[in-house]
Records
---
Amino acid sequence: MADFKTSSSILTKECLRTQICGEGEWPKNTVIYQPYETEQILLPDNSKCLSVKTFLKMAGLEFIVEARENAEYMSPHRGKVPFIKAGQFLVADFEPIVSFAQSKGYSLSTSLDETQKWDLRVYMALVNNVLLNAEIYVTWNHELTYKELTKPRYSSVYPFPLNHWATYNKRREMLSHLDVLGWKKKSLDEVFKEVERICESLSNFLGDKKYFFYEKPTELDALVFGHLFSIITTPLLNNRFAATVRAYDNLVQLCVRIETEFYQSRIL
Amino acid sequence: MGNLYAKPYHDFNINQKLSLQDFKLLGNQEARVDQVHMHGYSKTKDFILESSINLMFTSNSLKNIINNAEIVRKNLMSLNCFENISVNIDVSSGSNSTPNGYKVTFNVQELTFASSILHSVARDNEGIVKLGFKLNNITGHANHFKIESSIGNGGTQKYDACISKHIPGTISSCISGHIFKKKSYWNTVHGVFDEWGTLFDLLFLSPYKSHFSQNLQYEGVIRDINMLSKESPFKLREESGFSVKSSIKHITTIDTRDSKVLANEGVFFQMVMEVAGFGGDVKFLRNYFTSQFYSKITKDVVFQGSFGGGVLTDLGTFKKVNMMDRFFLGGPMTLRGFQSRGIGNLNDNVVAGVTSYWVSAVHIYVKPLFGMESNRINEAIRLHLFCNAGNISFFGKDTKSSLERTFKGFRLSTGFGVVARIGNSIRFEFNLCSPLQYSAGDRIVDGFQFGVGANFI
């Protein structure tokens, strides 16, 4: 038995290594786990899920979407959705998934030169820092949105008294996240001003190009599409958030382009 | 034991010491209790004590009086109001006395209002230290309050606030309410379990035969399962997150053992029935039982036979029962020779906790100092030879095939070792185990295994 055990553990390690190093082998039956779209998911999570799905579609990687009400607790990085299960690997969040795909030899940014790669990284960080935080702010810190939309949606999958408990915990966590980044004390106007500013710079960067880096879509396109499309299509209390984004015509056009190219079924 | 004094009846010479025969004669002679005195209490209310003491007036012989006095003493002690109680039995004198009358005096010493808690318990193969404080007998109605925190060597943390009250009567009962927070770990799969909950418990004790008790409990608890490592089995990971259990539990216990840990004779039987689904999101029906039977073969050799089992029926439609509800088998105190929760293949997509199990054990205990009179070593340590068998299975709809599966490929292990008793509830075991029958995927221990706990098979 002992011999069998050691040999089997060596085999498992070997398997792992070939999976890590093996290029060009995107694991079959890759599953992407996310919360329920119609009744549960919130704006920030929806953006991230959409970004990941768009990235995988752009890279031509196959995946199955599975909705779980406890997706954020199942995630290997607690609270971060979506996560993918690729073979034996669990990877959560947009950027780790991108680098995981890269390690398998699937990347959308290989054709870029050094400066473009820097631009890509800078803009991705900007989107994550501003758009994501703005979404979190609106969802969790804006009192009225929290009461009217966030709380009923987030607690919809839980029975009493867990609906209050879980929502309270999640809100506390999100607020402390905003607090650390200095977003909690901002007013709604300030937040929208930030959004406006990033939209403007993204819009300027995009210009008349088809995608941010000319003809081929990159990770940045996937990320921006995920966020902007979610912001535009998610019904909030007033459409100020969506209106801020809609003001930039070329960004909306980018969303439409990606939408028609990769998601035929939906109409913006 | 309290001090028990008996003074002879008028006809006997007072200076003469009572022989055993005299005492027997005296014991069977008709007698009645004229008066019962209680001394030494100030805070406790009278009516709390009355119902316990009433038993004294039903006694009809001296032997009866002595027996009843001991029962009353035990009942009074179970109120948790007194530090110690001594009993004094004397012939009654004075104008109200009858010819066969006796006077019984209980000298009690009340507990101080506040006291600290520091003691150790063992549970689920883990030694736990409890720290805290309690307020005794707050208003004099035998009501208590305590707060304690427990820390175990396996990482378990528990904080518990408890308020309890004794209700005296022909069926003595105790109501208690708990609020607790618990954190425990399952290291093999890197799992953390958090619980926040309340527990209301109604305990019925038959006062004359204290070995029979029943508990009726309500438990409402929020559970959180967190899998820390990416290597945790995905099947278990799927169950992570919050769930609420709201259940009613009924526990029947019969315990005639002479010691809770190293018994010589007696029977122990405990049956737990639990129905969950009064609110909350898990619904199930769970029954499980443990039984132990002890018999003395010779003066130094004790035989123990144990059997236990359980069935869980999932009544839920949307949300399934999770790993905190299902049964796990294996461990140094149950199915020896296997790791804690070590039975069943974790990577298998099916076996992550089971819905039914059975486990059995046969022990032969030998006192280490063979042939010697009972002494401390013989009381605290025993050598034992054991044989364990058990199995896990999923109960299906088809009874016949379920029954077949129940016994197909059962696990068997044997071995010998040392059992030690610490205090009156902690059991240590150090065994050399050899699993004889097991399936692929079981986490076995072929060699020395150390176990500590209060519940064992």
---
Amino acid sequence: MSSWAARMHRRAATFGNVVTSCGHPSGPYPRRLDKVKFGVPLDEVCKNDIPGPLLVLILKLNKEAPYRKDVFRAPGNQGAMKKLTHFLQTGRLINMDNFSVYTIASVLKKFLRKIPGGVFGKDIENRFFEIITMTDIQQQRDEIHRIIASLPDYTQKLLVLLFGTFRVISANSERAGTGMTSEALGVSVAPSFFHTCVSDGKNAKMEDVMRFKVATRVMKHLIEEFATSDLFGRENYEFYARVTGRVLRVQGEWICSFQYPPAPASEGGKAQVFGNQFGPLDQYLLGFSMEVEKTWLQCECDRWRSKYSLEAMSQVDECQSTPALAESGLTNQAVSSNSLGMIAEHTLLESCTRLSISLEQNGFFQGNNTSRSSSSSRSSKTSHNHSAGKRMTLDELRDVNRYAESTRSLSYLPLVHERQTERMRTRSQWFLAPSVECSSCGGSLDIPLDETDVSVLTNALLRRSSSGTIVGGMGLSMSAESVQKRPSIHRSNSRDKRSYLSRSTSRRGKVNGSRSNSFKGRGERKSSTSKQGSFKLKKNMSSRSCSFKKKTELCSCPPIEAADNCASNVIASTSSGCKPKTDTAKKTETIHVTLTYKPRI
Amino acid sequence: MDGIIRITVVGDGNTGKTCMLYAYKDKKYNDHHSSTVFDSYSMSIEIDGKPRRMILTDTAGQEEYDRIRILAYKECDVFVLCYSVDCRISFLNVRNKWARELMKIKPNCRIILAATKSDLRKIYNGCVSTSEGLRLKKEIRANDFVECSSKLLLNVDIVFQKAVIAAIHPHFVKKTKPKKEECAIL
């Protein structure tokens, strides 16, 4: 490996580029994450969005807590809690595997407890206390919905994640024998949410005990009503389904991942009927799933396939080899459910896929798609590939990036390291292969390989690659650019191709590079599933990227060569030549393929 | 002393405090599973032929409730500090958290250390052993140590008997005080 690195550096030097990984501050792994500060107002913690580590905490609970006894009730290890809190506050990387679910639950409660004024705030807490005494159920629901809708965006998202998790835990309490019913959960978490329970000062009184009991009732009510009525609003449910990868049913309808059910003709009335009818059933959905729902689901499957060209299967295969899935024989379950192509709410196997996907750092979209694509996408996935990239909206893109950022810490898995060594071996083999300089692209290198060879290689390698370890390509190009405004030249490796979906150009300069790399681009995923599709996509995307390069007066490759994995390096430059784009400009969804290669030591 | 003996049961969440109280006052095992916020029971017992009232206070183990728990600390005579045999974390928290909390709010309080769920020893490996419990008892200067099982109604009575004895015998207080002073001088 060292000889390979040395060779790499030598070559890089001949091109007059500073292509060293040591010059890149963040290295292969990002060393800093978003900080999750304790004891500061929520809007400071969630400046843009829920911070990644916090999201990972919740996701881990969402995945594992339903199987474990007394999560949220049983205490966490005090020492481990301190450690985890410290890590969160300083933004250090965390290996979640080292912390038990109990510790994480305790830390999460601590985080909520430390928020000044509480998640809700004093006024809203009091309103909740009033609402809980209401007798008219529908009015009560409306009122709760109004309250939640009045909260800031990040609070809503945080709440929907938390309550969704509570809901999963309570829905499975009986089956998994965890004992965490909604009541037990309510008692355990209520004081973390309701800070006004103890009246001013430290001297608690007997009335406060009563307030605590009311708060418990509020929590219990919210947990039970999470999916039976529209408490959190459509957007939030979609967000929840998207992030956790769970299939969720609200008001007796389906939400397939991030799909809200088609609005029924008479929404209000029907929702009520459904709410009453299915409320108690919804934990055992798969068993009770009716024919109608199934067909509706299949329709949705088709629709979504055409929309997003579900390509998750190969990734799912990969995921099943991850340690996260290996546990408790879930693999079989997952396989069997594949045939159905849908997964009942809270059956939990879906969430496993979810987290392991996040382990793979593939971003949102596979995760979203797995639930539906399981059965259907395998057969017909080539047709829509090339068009799919365009359909991502900017918001989704942002979500992808944020999500990817949030899951980086999970890349510290032994398995990843195993794969990394394997990859390094392949990489060095590739470098030994003859390479030809591409005159037209200003020194970039091109591999003289047949299309078929490349595709075989690409597919073989992509299957194996877990993106966590190839972080850094963009960061490199950024740094190269900042050092000298010359066309930067990178060797490209057929498998280090990462389609970089250009987003917010207003991001902070340095961070930009290190942050944007932690997810697999769509193009890459596409190519891993179907050869034909992958080539179409590549051509498509790289030609687009080339046009962009011309705009920015950077070195450009001929489109056709670029299609064949030549080193086309796109710098999403904001400083050189190209003015920072506005949001509207970004909506044109320029997608850049960075075929960069970054040597790592 | 007004003749009322106040006993407060504390310990981590899910250690079986409520179950133990139920087992003591109803003489049967109650398998219902829910967290306690704050509860108190009153019962009368006979000590030396005289009836005395006893107030048992049940608290929440979750640390969120620490402000409410203080309510039960004020007029308490004896604490029954529980840890669960099958949960090592709860055992460690006795030392790290509970003993400190009790000492801080009520120095020189009388503590009965109770190891609950002792029936689970047969089922799980790696349970907290009796000798570890005894060592912990010395470390936190508890007055007594009992292992009990609410499920089998084993030793539950002894826990509360010892608590009552600790409450009405000033003898225990005297015994611990000089020891502390010696330590301070040394």
---
Amino acid sequence: MSKVLVVTSGKGGVGKTTTSAAISSGLAMAGKKTVVIDFDVGLRNLDLIMGVERRVVYDIVNVIQGEAGLNQALIRHKEVDNLYVLPASQTKDKDALTEEGVGKVLNDLREEGFDYIVCDSPAGIERGAQLAMYYADEAIVVSNPEISSVRDSDRMLGILASKSRRAKDGETSIKEHLLITRYAPDRVGTGEMLSVEDMLEILAVPLLGVIPESHAVLQASNAGRPVILDENTDAGQAYSDAVARLMGEERPMRFIEADKKSFLGRLFGRG
Amino acid sequence: MGLLDIFRNRSQDPSAKMAKERLQILIAHERGQGQFRAPHYLPEMQKEILEVIRKYVHVEDDAVKFEVEHNEQFELFELNITLPEKGEGNERSD
């Protein structure tokens, strides 16, 4: 049985694509046949973060419009087995995505035997975002410890609960997960950043993971290599934990306590 | 700048606290305007309730309807089960 996961947030720039890349890679590394789909028609970026931008020939809109077969559009990741990328169109109108079209692509992917179908949502709550979450079984809501991001996450949770296919068909609702990104424990310690507890209290969604603010994320994007592949980095490890939890494993949260040494760092202005 | 920051942070009301309070008020308000969403444990609870019912009566998935209503003062959880017609032999004898 395939599982459809949507990575969403409402707000832009919080780390949806970074998360989609990392989570899909992690699932594939765990032996699950995984595809990650970019729903940001007109502003695609997943191909860059996954490092496959030079191998894009066809995209999801070509598949929906019958100009290419699914297998022509799927890009197999060179470094990670079991991992495929379905890019968004860069040139087509964003109305090219339709509910029926997306439904058919997802069904075809199910028939291809994919265990996980990860949908990377665009920012906002327009068509692309609504279609990315429409067929989801589970949702990862990405949120920064920042006031506008938390508000948008709550808004997105409301939309997931009311406008998805599961909500409309009266099925059990989408399983929701909160993933906090760009977390800076030392700033939480000084009271200038919302804490994990604050965010859980406000959003009341089970916590999938906390990804610390990390140099590794920018380096990974620069290199086009999902950050989870950098097993020695804090962000990479935090994503590995989140993937394990997604598959039902229990793991303690790491990287949520301030580094003890950072007090001295702050004292000398290097906090 | 480092040293000063520490004292400033300690003496001021931490800004994260303000952020939390503002968010709580705002979100309570926005959820009140048709933004209400069911508690996250609901799917699990629905599944378990259905399992309990099925211990005694055989019901199809579409014979069970769950609804959550949200009023200003309270939340109402409504569960409707259409039992199978008599004589269908669905009652468990064990």
---
Amino acid sequence: MTTVLVNGEPTELATSLTVRQLLERLELQGRRVAIEHNGDILPRSRYDDTRLAEGDRFEIIIAVGGG
Amino acid sequence: MNDPLIIAGKTYSSRLLVGTGKYKDFAETREAVDAAGAEIVTVAIRRTNIGQHPGEQSLLDVLPPSRYTLLPNTAGCYTAEDAVRTLRLARELLDGHPLVKLEVLGDPSNLYPNMPETLKAAETLVKEGFDVMVYCSDDPIQAKRLEEIGCVAVMPLASIIGSGMGILNPWNLRLIIDNAKVPVLVDAGVGTASDAAIAMELGCDAVLMNSAIAHARQPVLMASAMKHAVLAGREAYLAGRMPRKLYSAESSSPTSGMIAPARGG
């Protein structure tokens, strides 16, 4: 197991997980999101080959109402 | 009348841009956007609520990017760094779509823009290939500087965000409009339809608003009012108003051919 930060929340997950599997765990599969991984944009094409590592920081964002 | 608005080389028929915040639900948001006839709608970028309401409808289901031009904003950002970071995420979210609204705020009590940070963010974003529509103070020098940096539209405030105070400094707006080669949009401060008409009569290319519609007692009806106000203001601007003539009374009816005045006695 490893601890990563997802939107600022410490989250316990298996190290072998890919980012795509992370999204499934969070019930966000199929949702339109964008992800920042340790401060850099993680393109969608990289969700399958990026694996979680100890201390990783993820920001997962969506569009919401705003002016 | 064929009078398109052109922003970053793309043509729009509506000169009313609307925000999507503060509505009671997504259905009302969509209804108001459609009543406004808006093609460009602003959205905010926020963290997902992890573990809450999976399967819930999202804003982009209601306002699909295939039908609307989404304009992600940086509302709530107080530094150039945060604003740039937010818009990089937005571009990824919207599959590389480069049109964005930059706003960097300076003071949470009045949401006045922080111009030094705005200029800094604009420089970075333009270098990274974004088409930047930029919220700014109504200072003609700052607006010109943003244009020189390469912003595709400058969007001065008419009054403070969410205040509904209307067009408080029309002369500054005129200075900005007269100096600009890119579209000028009034962004923030519109309270009711006449404010939008005044902005357009001054020569603004378009108006962007959110609270004036969302906080009206009947948002969808106000959205329609704003659509008409922007159209009326634009047509009045193109038509060219009559000169103001204080103390030079001139009747619209002929002055000759009056019937003989009645004579008493």
